[in-house]
Amino acid sequence: MAIDWAGLGRFLAILAASILGGWLWSRLGLPLGWLMGAAIVTGGLAMSGIRVTIPKTPHRAGLILIGSSVGLTLSPDVAGRMLGWAPLMVFAAFLGIALACLFAPIYARLGRITPATAYFSLLPGGVIEMARIGEDNGADPTTIAAIHALRVGLVVGVLPLVLFAFVPLSTAVPTAGSDGTPLALLAAFLVGALGGVVGDRLGLPAAWLLGAVLSVGLAASSGLIEGGIPAELLAAAQVIVGMALGARFDRERMSSIPRAIVAGIPSILLIMTAMAGAASLAALATGQSLSSLVLAFSIGGMAEMVLTAKSLGQDALTVAAFQTVRAVIVNGLAGPIWRRLARSSSGPGGRGR
């Protein structure tokens, strides 16, 4: 197969610019500096009309590194604690669905889009899954994909900065921690990659990240692997994830639905606020970390929220667990719930199309 040298050269140039942007942003001492800097640079290029394509291999490698870093913190007692969170995880997932149903009629009117498109655009599910399921139910996949990119961008751009004010600076700056030996690091990455392959074959949400969390977590809790992922490698993973986020803001997609995008911003911010409020109540009731639960309840992407948790020194494993349960429930029930709503006069807009 012939190598696309022009495409490779364009990617390397964008990668270099994204690394510089990440470095500059991180120098400000803000959370997710490498990710946000890369996302801003890549998003700016995409909005200017430059085609940005992120090869699968580096993107998957970045997700594996993130998942492995979370999996290395798993132990039997932590796994037991995760089971205790199950009812709250399910509640958070259904709350996200309920808020999407609540705001969909308003968003449909303001954005002049169909109720189905509004509903699938506001659901906190995977962008690919929501676009596909939405299209199967008569919604516009282009609008759905654009609004989901906007949703993740807003959450990643706003939430870490808000939480930063409530997190002591000493825990907000990520450190390398007790990094393992190069051999242990290689073993963790290979185990994580194997878990990613299996997760992808099984159709798990965020398969490469979640597969790495589960496979490395199993090995770590069994005492087969120990240590941590160096901060430099996690910074590289942030750059790749940030580039993938920025690439979603391509000019053709965004310029085709300006009214829907403008109307989507307040809807997303209101849902974010409602989820944060619910997380605050949960923190008061359980005595757990407010920042961790706000990230766990948040409607951002799994990789971005896990990285945010690590950046702020919060419980990344709990955040990953909440985000996984939400993704499974939302992706699985989005279609059936919409069809039931569309048949009911009380559904979003009272119409399914």
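(the above was protein one; protein two follows)
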Amino acid sequence: MAKPFPAIFICLLLFVAPSLCAQDKAGDNDDVIRVATDLVDVPVAVTDAKGTPIKNIRAANFVIYEDGVKQTVAEFTSAAAPFEVALLLDTSGSARNDLPLIRNAAASFISSLRPGDRVAVVGFSMSSGSPGRVPIVEILSPLTSDRKALSSALSKLNTSAGTPYYDGMEEIADKVFGGAEKAEFRGRRAVVALTDAVDSTSVGNFAVVREKLEAKGLISYFVRLDTREYFEENLLGDCEAAMRFSTAQIRRYYRTLKGTPSMEKASVFCQLGDFERLAVSKKLYQIADSEMQDLAKRSGGKVFNTSDLSDARRAFQEVAAEIGTKFTLGYYPTNESRDGKYRKIKVELKGLPPGSQVRAREGYTAPTN
């Protein structure tokens, strides 16, 4: 026959047990928070050998690797799920002469999206304050599925004498997507930018833009405007009459060269001859193209080239078509270290016809807290 527990032991057990239960409950809550935070979303687009989107896909058709280690697909969102899109419209440079074309192309893009998709409209304009007017970013509409409100926002689109492109992308990350992410849009948020991406007046820089977009998990799509010929036609000759580089642009060019001359020389446009002006222009457009490709590739997006603004409608239709066929995978990393390091993602296909291809997010930065 078992001996009865001492009374003092029973008292201690009654005292400690509630505390233990409370700790277990807190631990459970911590686990829930950790799991929700650590879920990694991977947007993917899948095409057949001819480049046609494949729509009938299941989670079993994907294999995910993080830094070479196989992961388990925990969530799968079909292409029918809605998207949130921030539409950035660059109305600087040569685009200032074609504002109606930009409005019409943007309106066509919005009408091509699905009823449940939400869109924000962001543009550039000139400040109205003193001492002088400067290019600024305008959020013309927050994220909404109200097509009338979006049409009204497009009617308010203005032009700009400069290109605060980096600042525009930052404001999209900080303000358009600044609030809490809704569950139905996890891994299904994108930036669609109509631009040449040649920044001239931003306070921010590309490194910060990339960090913020990646932290939000935003897919980057670009409808690339080819404005180089127009710009260079107005760049040469009398420096007082020519189209000028901004100080920031000239400095950006010289920073890419070895044996950088003094910043004083680099900031004076009229000290540049025609040959050097063309060299600066070429490098700035190369930088812009490289940055667009980098953002698109790392996020699982794409750059759609256009011949001119009249071709933008076609490019926008292609963006809308891809958004409508985009799947989202989710996994909980086997590497639970919260070390703030960048981790590479690789997605492979299985059980699909030969020649099928996948384009996916290429990585993310692990949390640190």
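Reviewer note on protein two: Residues 5-36 have pLDDT under 50 and may be disordered.
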